[in-house]
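Board notes (copied after class):
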Amino acid sequence: MDRPQLADFLRARRTALQPEDVGLPRGPRRRTAGLRREEVAALCGMSADYYGRLEQGRGPQPSEPMLAAIARGLHLTLAERDHLFRLAGHHAPDRASRADHVAPAVQRILDRLQDTPAMVVTETGETLVQTPAAMALLGDQTHYTGLERSTPFRWFTDPASRDVYPAEDHDERAATFVAELRAAYARGGAGSRAARLVDALLPRSEEFATMWARHEVADKRSRTKRMQHPDLGVLTLDCQTLLDTDTGQRLLVFTASPGTPDADKLALLTVLGPRQTTAAP
């Protein structure tokens, strides 16, 4: 681990970012060149003290998940992310896993949607980053590891993951997840993440195995979703999807028609704070 170079690199990338780049107001009294340390720490989901020690060349070696969070918070390119990992004493992630890295342009859009439920997911349903409003609606979905990172895997192996949808919508949602996983499998082929998920699910879930055997390939996605919140009840939301063709990542944005009860419920999400239970997007 090259502490001095890591510290210099972090400082350089922080000062190169402007508040407008990450959806923050500049304010009339800003004297710092670029972002403040505490602003970057908040974007990375870590304490200001921890991030400050990294910039000062102190503290423990950051883990790979922590470095991935820093790469997202600083809007690093893939080349910059790889450099960050090497400076911290880790091997650069395999470029085959580039779907884990949120493109800076997509991250900039997300930064401007902090009061709107929005999230970036991979083609196999792994949540990479969420806005605070999305955490209030769905719970924190970024902390899972292994196969459980995938929404379809949790859907068919953990009944509690279905609580976000009304029971009468479960069949439709299950069909959607299977259709999307089949499409990802077709694109990636054997050895892909989608293939590994399918191989893991077939012996674990009879429901999945039955649906997978039907070979349904129609696009099951709906732009309207009904979601069930423990405090707000059922919300009928429009789900807009922005596809990043380079990575296959999808930016999901949930909105409601202005002036409707659903819009009023969405406005309450930021007041309620993160949902304690986690659910599938």
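Comment from the instructor: The chain has two domains: 3-93, 106-272. The CA atoms of residues 7 and 52 lie 9 Å apart.
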